[in-house]
Design goal:
- Helices cover 35% and strands 27% of the residues.
- The chain is globular.
- By secondary structure, the protein is an alpha/beta fold.
- The longest helix has 16 residues.
- The protein is built from four helices and five strands, in the order βαβαβαββα.
- A five-stranded mixed beta sheet has the order 1-3-2-4-5.
Length: 107
């Protein structure tokens, strides 16, 4: 993961979401083909929005509690949080422009 993309865990997730205005979270798994395709897009967005949006990833195999808490039934699933609340959910592979548009409307 790049320096701009955070690895969220069960231990750091809540504090990261509550202490940042806008947060993008990619729920993924290493065995998921579409997740592997989305990974570089998430990394690019982390760089593009550095200083404006906290971008990070949750491995659903490592953090099943977070996957359950947010009702993740299919991956990849990208959630956008604003002021600690989910404002957007994008499930399945999405183009960079779609994800950027979702971020822009939350800034």
């Amino acid at each position: 993961m790049s320096d701009n993309c955070v690895k969220f865990t069960s231990e750091n997730f809540d504090s990261a979401i509550s202490s940042n205005d806008v947060v993008m979270v990619d729920f993924w798994a290493s065995w998921c083909g579409p997740c592997k395709m989305l990974g570089p897009v998430i990394e690019e967005l982390a760089g593009d929005y550095a200083g404006k949006v906290l971008v990070g990833k949750v491995n659903v195999d490592d953090c099943p509690d977070l996957a359950e808490r947010f009702g993740i039934m299919a991956i990849p699933a990208v959630f956008i949080f604003k002021a600690g609340k989910v404002t957007d959910k994008l499930v399945g592979f999405r183009q960079k422009a779609q994800l950027a548009a979702a971020l822009d409307k939350n800034l």
